[in-house]
């Protein structure tokens, strides 16, 4: 009988990626071990709602209106030494609440999909207040010191680029496994495209562009972009997702289109895998989970105005992998849409094939298996096996 009777996942609702990664792992654990009790904790919201609101507000507003400010903040926090006063304060945020949660829930393992609680639990371990195995799931193709903490037993990372970055910052190679970013079960199988085309009233013969504004609708210029794209002379099906931004939903819904442009506008969508499955190209920023879901469904991407920091690094990785293009201006977005959808659809086919070499549909299942092994006290990654797994886990050299 498994010893992973209780799994605690520490996450946060900044964007939607950290939570979606948590749910993907939860689904994999439930599938392989139905008797395991999995609890997902939105850490900052629970331990300090005021700080959570302030941090989330700063994140959304800076990304929307002052990306250079967010870039300064991201870069500044990337190099904070673990012994600094600021880092010690961050690692004490909600410490007593987490200690009480551990004592009450008594998890056999902890998985952090957000860096702050990983640091807090690491501090508790260093103080000798707990010995629970701590694992961390990095949800972007980016290297940042806030993910790296001394008490971490195992890191799950999306690519060799991140693995090498963690090693360069002093993490033991044996404590890192390249798993990919886990996606939910709905993204692990190819949906029935003809059935979904009928559901959404789409014509298979007409190219379809999916525009994703992020969970909070923060993709810059999305309204203006949709207006410009809607002026294309060719027939086009345009699906626009504005997330939780109601004002943006209203703005885009009022756009007048030509008769040959078929546009549908959505707010926050739970069945996003269906919209991805019926699309030929996705215009998005570069959130770690969104792009991983697109790669899983072999959906080519056009990246625009990624958030400075982690999404810039995501974009560089995806372009290098051959599954995305990066547009630096609105004019370039429109030009690339026309080029990819109407002038060279064979390029999209190449991008779809490239996705096969980097996607990891088994990421959630692999992580679930490693968590089971940690709870049993087994060796999680024998060195000989580790070398084989990491060599095969990415088709892109860095």
List the helices and strands and how they pair.
Blueprint: E1 6-11, H1 17-32, E2 37-42, H2 43-47, H3 49-65, H4 67-78, H5 85-90, H6 95-105, E3 109-112, H7 115-126, E4 134-137, E5 154-157, H8 160-168, E6 176-178, H9 193-199, E7 208-212, H10 222-229, E8 236-241, H11 246-253, E9 261-266, H12 272-277, E10 281-284, H13 288-296, E11 301-304, H14 310-321, E12 324-327, H15 330-343, H16 345-358, H17 363-376, H18 383-392
Parallel strand pairs: 1-2, 1-3, 3-4, 4-5, 5-6, 7-8, 7-10, 8-9, 10-11, 11-12
Describe, in plain words, how this protein is organized in 3D.
The protein is globular and about 65 Å long. β8, α11 and β9 form a beta-alpha-beta unit. Helices cover 48% and strands 14% of the residues. The C terminus is likely disordered. The two termini are 41 Å apart. It has 398 residues and is of the alpha/beta class. The strands form 2 sheets. A 6-stranded parallel β-sheet has the order 2-1-3-4-5-6, sandwiched between helices. Strands 9-8-7-10-11-12 form a 6-stranded parallel β-sheet, with helices on both faces. The chain has 18 helices and 12 strands. It folds into 2 domains: 212 residues, Rossmann fold; 170 residues, Glycogen Phosphorylase B (Rossmann fold, 3-Layer(aba) Sandwich), CATH 3.40.50.
Mind telling me which CATH architecture of the largest domain this is?
Answer: 3-Layer(aba) Sandwich
Annotation field: number of helices: 18
Strand content: 5-15%
The termini sit apart by 41 Å
Mean pLDDT: 86
User: Which CATH class of the largest domain is shown?
Assistant: Alpha Beta
H/E element sequence: EHEHHHHHEHEEHEHEHEHEHEHEHEHHHH
| Multimeric organization | single chain
Describe the strand arrangement of the main beta sheet, using strand numbers: 2-1-3-4-5-6
* Full CATH superfamily name of the largest domain: Glycogen Phosphorylase B
- Share of residues in helices: 40-55%
